[in-house]
Amino acid sequence: MTKLLNRRRLLNYPRLILAGIALALALNVLLGQGWLGMSGQVIGTDFVTLYSAGVLYRQDIHHLYDFAAQGQVQQELIYPTPLPGINFFTYPPHAAWLYSLLALVPFTWAFVLWTALTLLFIALAVYWLQRFLTPARLIDAGLGYWQLVVVALSFFPFVEGFQVGQNHGLTFLLVTGMVVFSVSGRWWAAGAMAALLIYKPHFVLGFLIVWLVWQKYRALASFTVVAAVVVASVVLSHGIAPYLAYLAVVPQLLEFPYQAGYPAFLQLTPYGLLTTLLPYQALPGILVFTQALTVGLTVGLAWVAYRLRRRPESERSLALMLAILYPLLIAPHTLLHDLMGVIPFFLMWAQKEYTHRVLYAAVAVYLGAFLLPWPSHLFRLAFLSLIPMGLLAMQIRRMWVGRREILGLA
What we know:
Structural class: mainly alpha
Shape: globular
Helix content: 55-70%
């Protein structure tokens, strides 16, 4: 450690930040009116969207992707608090099926339940991280279970998603599960975690590429079976019409960054950065660039996985780290709250490289995720996309410098 980043600061500053955040969130609720918080923003806006999709799934699935119908249900849920605009439901139909279960509970109590479940997801994910990924020297330095919980809860991507009722806690749990079960060789469980995450399929693709190259057929079989059950839960009840309706609106989703009210400045991807830099007329070129980038990163990830295929599971972490970054680089819409996956990313990195460089990078991401949204909002530019691109650049440099040791290249 350095004099600036000494042990006491590394332990106490996240605790102080968490205390301040908890106080701010509590005041936002207590001093608000109805569903309108003290900040002037609707509390749980994303949960309103997810819950309304559950309502439409149960009552009027034919209008699940009718944006006007979504807006009407959303407004009814928080009435008389005014809804400032429609927050579109953009997930596949099986995600709506999940929230249709929550829709059995009255909206307010469902929000309380979802909030409690989010905290439970974080607690379980941190338990897995502590057991499977946290190096002993970090634990000795003070990064025990509760300190890691503090880091996760004070990390601004969690806070941003928590206050709007996002599903980022569940996503974090499932990404963590894919990682830790891959590292420990529990391939059936790893595949099941991936299947449960297909409500955000781009978060699964990188791991499927790695498992395919490694010929981990148990993970792929488990993924296929569980994913088929999830999709069948919709198809057996409603046929394929909901999926056709979803595919019909996908092209519209690519234009969302240019829509008024969409938080394009919170995007993490190169696509997000380009759409905040360039006018709508440049969208075809942006799409071509994104497709070319996706092909390049897919080939690169597969090549790294191939080079590591004969190593023990504990020495393959680089491929899994790149699989975590993969959706943050290739997807059109990946927002700030989905940056939670960098926590297992850094723990795996620290297993292989216990240096100041890793510590500085971790602190820079922790602080950058908190500070960058403000200039991003001011200039309407997706500065947050610099985080995953910077992490990828550091891993490329690491591979180049250690190409003999890491990849077995002369």
